[in-house]
Design goal:
The chain is an alpha+beta fold. It has 29 helices and 66 strands. Helix 19 packs antiparallel against helix 22 and helix 28 packs antiparallel against helix 29. InterPro entries: Ion_trans_dom, TRPV.
């Protein structure tokens, strides 16, 4: 079989292992304060199946041509893999490689003198690693692994047998019993004189067995059917042997050895070795020392053996399935791990909690037969497997929840038995003392290393006295001799008077500071150097710097005052706090971080954190703080207390986020009675017991780590990453199943992620997208909750089916029947800094899915925190013409400010719009005076009327700052005036208009007025000064013209006027050039720009002609052109003012609407002009001298305007004159009556539309001008916070209804409002009727239940009523949904209503 035929665990397709690598993404969207987290850690993308699997190429030490791997043994606690293999060409030599577990690099290699069928057996017993190996000639040796690794002949036991048989298995059952399987033989050895724990190479034992054939074995057991072992040991040795190849040894269960054949299970008494019980089923032992001990059958039923009656008692069914072959059973103090093959030869991996039997993970079809699992590592929670070609070793982590690692309870064991609280006699930090079997001996155990030593009870006090001062004493070679002496502190340390910079602050007690070199300082004397006043004594502790170095000594001198000594500067510093610093207890430890600007003071009952800037307490964590641990990092402080971690993140020296991690769901049932942390930022160990069992409870250890360990990409859940998905989330609570997000100053949870996922869920998410729609709909309908869970790389079901409208609609339908408050966050980014499903469908221009996504967000995530999803896409949504009316009316883009600092009543009713850059929108609560303090008028009288005022914050920071020009550009380009009708867009435009646009255009307008006034003066002056008096005299039919005096214009006045106008136009020319440079080709898309440039060119031409040829006709024409263009530019500037803006816009709209009609009208003018030309034989008409060629076309136009000239009609022939009058009548009907009224109707329609959208058109004009203004900003200008803040705050009176919209605007508004109100009222009435119907139905059900005692009839009636209820619910839901369509229908009919009203008013005016 080729490598391409192998199916990798978890993977649907083939993975290119040579390119599998750990990808890392730089999250640029995060604040700089948090960037270090994601430069260092990587979020796993589970949508890529290979993300859960780590592949490491495996290379042997020996370059063998034909490799045969015999076995691989994983030693997780030693970080090793043992690889046993041979060369296929030379079977006589075996090799054993010691391979690093992480890198798979071979550390060393050794040759083994073994037969091919032999194998090494590895076992851990009582914390010691042992190796069984058989030499080539049949001698089996038991040796400690450390001695074996060093190739030292320090074996403990030799097992010798006359005949050679391969070693198949070996097991240390207890301290005195070992069983071997050699070929068909099972040999049980008893250590009669010494236990295995006490053995060493000097006390080695040799067991010898002679040859024993099958006939002799059968003869000895023939008389006793319950006997399968016979005693074969020589004198002084207890050895039993069984010759049964059909049996296999399983495990010891209580007092019985369990042997199985193909279909039966035998229980052998561990004393008599007689069969006590035989069952016709195969049973497997599920056991972890004496902590738990179960039997399991092939249907996953768990049993306990009743030793009194020798019967099985079923206690639980682990899993609803069965298996044919159990490949591996691994156990740990907390988990039961099973790998089995089902009926169709597929491997399934299961993990269960050993105490509650809750399934923690399930992975079906984990691998095919082409892969071999060679190790399950319960320490690191890994499963190792290899391919048939053995070119790589792979593993994956099967921890499914951080709760299985963080807060995991590990029993404290001694020789397989859990220590109970009653046995615990004393503890200090990481050392515990507990009873042994001997009354005079205590066991001392180091929880860090697990190392155990025995001491006499009389020396226990001495031990703890010594270890409190020097923990290294436990590992001293003369340990036993040292602790026999009495500890004397007085003679150990020398008193000194100073603390120098090179001194090490080791520890403190009630009154002294201990330094390196066995020195100490009396603190009460040393502190006098500070010359400060102290209210209290001994309220001091050692204080660390931000690098966890013991640099300071802190003392609380007064209730609100801190004094600390810095050994580096040899100086005291005093800090007066505004809050109380002192506690009822003495401080234990303190930390000073001058970069974060905080001081952390730890007491036995609380931890206080103070700001060095504000001198106030910023956090107080209280509780059972004597069981705490502290961690500090770049911008965070973490305090672990019992089963909770509290993490404070700082940004700009202020608390930005608070994350609380709850480790255990059953923490209320547990109690911590000791906690040890060697130093800051090191693992902390807690001793825990169960409350319900009191002192009879077993003792557990729980490890507390820094939250940074949760970023480990090998874990299935990395819960800290989603905590940073939404910037506004200020408080985050994480437990084993959910991440709850809270926003600043809000008590209610805003949203939560469901993170209780398994590997099987990841597989389902990967596979479901390949199914057809029918299967997907069925799957979602049967279990929609499954697709509400968050999986990194997928998001929720909305991310899984982001391209499938049918699936998304099915999810939306299913969740609509659920309580809104019970739903988790549905739409979010799939990974930190990545895209959300909404981003995907926007990029794909899938408008139906976009509308569905927006509806879901507005309905279920209507909070400012989630506006981030839409905010960054707002410009693109506008570009794609998506309807955003519901969005702008929701709570996503706006935040209603309700705060006592913001008065809801005020005498000043002006509307104020201001911008402010904030880190968080909730910070606006403290900014009232800064925002509005100097902008409101003060009341002159107490009797002055008050108005209601509301305050809103526009929550679009991405849109306003990321690309500040884009929003206005998209608004100016849009063809949907509805965008300009909502208050959010209007307020943004008003802010930009009033802040940096209006004043600029007003300034230009005032400058232009200089030009216009000067130009008008120049035109009038030139015209009247050049006027000539002409006198006409007629003599003898001759016209005599005498020229009178000519009034010549003053040349300097003309030059001055031209200079002033030119100076102004040069100013505008520079502006146009700058605009052209910036806009490039886009400059020519604006028609006003053509007018501007033509105006400048025309005026220059006018100046040239005016000074060179004053009386030419071209001068007259160019003057007319300049006049027209000058007033066009005037119209351009008049748009600044709202009163003129809509008129200018209306004029432009009218001409735009008339373009096709005018073209059609000119065609008719051309038609009738040609008819009249033929009819009158092109005769010249005196009225049209100079334009004779166009005379008849002008005649046709005059007819259309009602100006009739009939003089030429009487000169026609009798026959032609009839046709002439007929054509004239047709022309009058067509051009005058029909077309002129058409023009009036079109203009009226255009006027009506402009008036209806008066406000929208006005704001669009402003948007166009803002775009032009913003294009002139430099990159530096775009970063100015006063021009482009990330938030806009609006103050407006609630009763100030703007009347600027005009008559039609008000009418249409009222009409829309009436329709919407009626629809809402109808909808509420239907819902109310729906609820009353439900109450009546349930009332009837309850009445029937009270009056009817027959359960069957009640169930039948209940089902009928429920059926009716469902039908009514569906009917009512259908009716409610139809309301929206009816409203839309009514809105579509408004156009007809408006046109009808126009006609009625026109008739009334006539």
């Amino acid at each position: 079989m080729q490598a391409s035929d192998y199916r990798e665990p978890f993977l649907e397709g083939q993975v290119n292992y040579s390119t599998v690598q750990n990808l890392k993404k730089n999250i640029q969207s995060l604040p700089q304060d948090y960037q270090w987290l994601f430069d260092e850690f990587n979020e796993v993308n589970y949508s890529k199946p290979e993300s859960r699997i780590k592949h490491i190429p495996y290379k042997l030490e020996k370059p063998l041509l034909n490799l045969n791997i015999h076995q691989l043994i994983v030693l997780p606690h030693k970080n090793l893999i043992l690889a046993e293999y041979t060369d296929g060409c030379y079977y006589t030599i075996k090799y054993l490689d010691f391979v690093d577990l992480n890198t798979l690099q071979t550390i060393k290699s050794m040759e083994l003198q073994q037969q091919l069928d032999d194998k090494i057996i590895y076992q851990v017993f009582n914390g010691v690693d042992y190796i069984f190996y058989q030499e080539r000639y049949g001698c089996i040796r038991l040796i400690k692994f450390d001695d074996f690794e060093q190739k030292e002949e320090k074996y403990l036991i030799e097992f010798y047998m006359d005949n050679y048989e391969p070693l198949y298995n070996a097991s240390i059952i207890d301290e005195f019993t070992i069983i071997l399987q050699k070929g068909p033989f099972f040999i049980l050895y008893k250590l009669d004189t010494i236990s295995l724990n006490q053995m060493n190479p000097d006390t080695r034992i040799r067991f010898e067995i002679g040859y024993f054939n099958s006939q002799d074995y059968m003869n000895q057991i023939s008389n006793n059917s319950n006997q399968i072992f016979i005693k074969v040991g020589k004198q002084g040795q207890t050895i039993y042997q069984m010759l049964r190849s059909d049996y296999s040894y399983n495990e010891k269960h209580r007092n019985y050895y369990i042997f199985k054949d193909l279909s039966k299970t035998c229980f052998l008494d561990d004393t008599t070795l007689q069969i006590s019980l035989k069952l016709d089923k195969k049973l497997y032992v599920v056991r972890y020392f004496n902590l738990y001990d179960f039997l399991m059958d092939e249907s996953f039923n768990l049993y306990q053996l009743n030793t009194d009656t020798l019967t099985l008692e079923k206690i639980h069914k682990l899993y609803k399935a069965s298996f044919t072959n159990m490949d591996k059973i691994e156990t740990s103090p907390t988990k039961i791990i099973l790998l089995y093959k089902d009926q169709i030869a597929n491997y399934t991996f299961l993990i269960f909690d050993c105490r509650t039997f809750q399934m923690l993970d399930c992975i079906k079809n984990i691998m095919s037969d082409n892969y071999h699992t060679f190790g399950i590592d319960t320490v690191n929670s890994r499963i190792y497997y290899k391919s048939a070609k053995m070119d790589f070793i792979s593993y994956f982590r099967f921890i499914t929840n951080y709760d299985m690692y963080y807060g995991c309870l590990i029993p404290v064991l001694r020789q397989g038995n859990q220590i109970i609280k009653n046995d615990l006699k004393d503890f200090w930090e990481n050392f515990i003392a507990y009873n042994s079997k001997s009354e005079d001996i205590f066991h001392i155990q180091d929880l860090n290393s697990g190392f155990i030593k025995d001491i006499s009870k009389e020396n226990s006090d001495n031990f703890f006295s010594f270890v409190r001062n020097n923990v290294g004493i436990f590992y001293h070679p003369e340990f036993q001799e040292i602790i026999k002496q009495k500890y004397d502190d007085q003679n150990t340390y020398q008193e000194v008077q100073n603390i120098n910079s090179e001194d090490i602050l080791e520890r403190k007690d009630v009154s002294q500071i201990y330094l390196n070199g066995n020195r100490k300082v009396i603190w009460s004397e040393f502190r006098q150097k500070s010359q400060q006043y102290y209210d209290f004594n001994n309220f001091f502790c050692i204080m660390l710097n931000r690098f966890n170095e013991k640099q300071y000594v802190l003392e609380i001198s007064e209730k609100n005052t801190i004094v600390y000594y810095d050994k580096m500067t040899q100086a005291f510093t005093k800090i007066d706090m505004l809050d109380i610093v002192k506690s009822s207890n003495i401080p234990i430890l303190a930390l000073l971080d001058d970069e974060l600007g905080i001081i952390v003071i730890s007491y036995s009952d609380e931890v206080k954190i103070f700001s060095l800037d504000s001198k106030q307490r910023i956090k107080e964590i209280s509780g059972k703080m004597d069981h705490k641990s502290i961690f500090m990092g770049n911008n965070y402080v973490q305090v672990n207390c019992d089963f909770v971690s509290n993490i404070l993140f700082f940004k700009n020296r202020k608390v930005d986020k608070f994350i609380q991690i709850q480790y255990l769901q059953q923490s209320s049932q547990l109690e911590t009675f000791n906690c040890y942390q060697k130093d800051i930022n090191q693992k902390a160990y807690s001793l825990v017991k169960r409350k319900s069992k009191g002192d009879e409870s077993g003792i557990y250890t729980m490890i507390s780590n820094s939250f940074q360990d949760m970023f480990n990409e090998q874990y299935l859940i990395q819960p800290v990453f989603p905590a940073f998905y939404f910037d506004y989330a200020q408080k985050i609570i994480i437990d084993s199943s959910a991440i709850q997000l809270y926003i600043k100053n809000e008590l209610e949870m805003v949203g939560n992620f469901e993170i209780d996922i398994t590997d099987q869920l990841i597989i389902d998410y990967n596979s479901v997208i390949h199914q057809n729609n029918q299967e997907i709909v069925k799957e979602i309908s049967s279990n929609v909750e499954k697709y509400l869970k968050f999986v990194s790389g997928f998001g929720t079901g909305f991310g899984v089916f982001q391209n499938n409208l049918v699936a998304l609609e099915t999810i939306a339908k299913q969740i609509s029947m659920k309580d809104k408050q019970s739903l988790p966050i549905l739409i979010c980014q799939k990974m930190l800094g990545g895209d959300s499903p909404l981003d995907f469908c926007i990029k794909a221009h899938q408008q139906k899915i976009i509308n569905l996504m927006l509806t879901i967000i507005i309905k279920y995530q209507d909070h400012i925190m989630f506006n981030k999803l839409i905010d960054k896409n707002l410009c693109e949504l506008i570009k794609q013409q998506i309807d955003l009316q519901e969005y702008f009316e929701s709570s996503l883009p706006t935040y209603q400010i309700v705060n006592p600092q913001y008065p809801s009543q005020h005498h000043d009713e002006q509307e104020i719009i201001v911008g402010k850059t904030l880190d968080h929108p909730k910070e606006v609560h403290d900014k009232y005076d800064e925002l509005f303090g100097g902008k409101l008028s003060k009341s002159d009288s107490e009797d002055e009327s008050m108005v209601s005022v509301e305050y809103q914050l526009i929550n679009l920071p991405e849109t306003l700052t990321r690309n500040p020009r884009e929003l206005m550009k998209e608004l100016s380009d849009t063809e949907k005036p509805e965008y300009f009708e909502n208050l959010v867009i209007q307020n943004i435009i008003n802010f930009k208009w009033n802040t940096y646009t209006k004043t600029v255009y007003q300034k230009k307008f005032y400058i232009y007025l200089i030009f216009l006034a000067t130009f008008i003066f120049d035109i009038f002056y030139s015209a009247y000064s050049n006027k000539r008096q002409v006198k006409a005299e007629t003599e003898e039919n001759q016209l005599i013209v005498n020229a009178s005096e000519v009034s010549e214009p003053n040349i300097w006045i003309k030059i001055s006027a031209k200079v002033v106008c030119s100076a102004v136009l040069i100013y505008f020319l520079l502006h146009e050039v700058e605009q052209l440079t910036i806009q490039k080709a886009n400059y020519f898309r604006d028609v006003w720009n053509y007018f501007d440039f033509t105006h400048i060119i025309a005026f220059v031409t006018f100046c040239v002609i005016d000074f060179t040829n004053e009386d030419s006709d071209s001068l007259i024409l160019i003057k007319i052109l300049v006049i027209v263009l000058s007033f066009m530019k005037l119209f351009y500037f008049l748009r600044i003012y709202d009163g003129f803006s809509f008129l200018v816009q209306m004029m432009g709209g009218v001409f735009k609407d008339l373009k096709y009609f005018i073209s059609f009208f000119l065609i008719f003018i051309l038609q009738f002009g040609m008819i009249f030309l033929v009819l009158f034989k092109a005769a010249s008409i005196d009225e049209y001298n100079g334009v004779n060629k166009m005379a008849y076309f002008l005649m046709a136009f005059r007819i259309s305007s009602g100006d009739f000239q009939l003089d030429e009609y009487q000169n026609q022939d009798d026959t032609v004159v009839i046709f002439a009058w007929i054509i004239w009548l047709i022309a009058v009907m067509t051009l005058n009556i029909v077309f002129m009224n058409f023009i009036i109707a079109v203009i009226s329609e255009s006027y009506e539309r402009v008036m209806q959208k008066l406000v929208a058109e006005s704001y669009k004009v402003k948007a166009n001008m803002i775009v032009e203004r913003e294009q002139l900003f430099s990159d530096k200008d775009l970063t100015k916070e006063e021009l482009f803040p990330n938030f806009i705050i609006v103050r407006r009176p609630t009763n100030n209804d703007s009347n600027d919209a005009g008559e039609w605007q008000g009418f249409i508004k009222d009409l829309k409002y009436t329709i919407r109100t009626s629809a809402a009222k109808s909808k509420s009435e239907m819902i109310q009727n729906f609820h009353s119907s439900i109450e009546k139905i349930y009332g009837a059900i309850q009445q029937n239940q009270q009056n009817n005692n027959q359960n069957d009839s009640i169930d039948e009636k209940l089902s009928q009523l429920n059926g009716k209820l469902d039908s009514k619910v569906e009917g009512l839901e259908f009716q409610v949904k139809n309301i929206d369509s009816k409203v839309l229908g009514l809105q579509d009919d408004m156009q007809f209503i408006k046109s009808t009203l126009v006609q009625l008013l026109q008739k009334q005016n006539q």
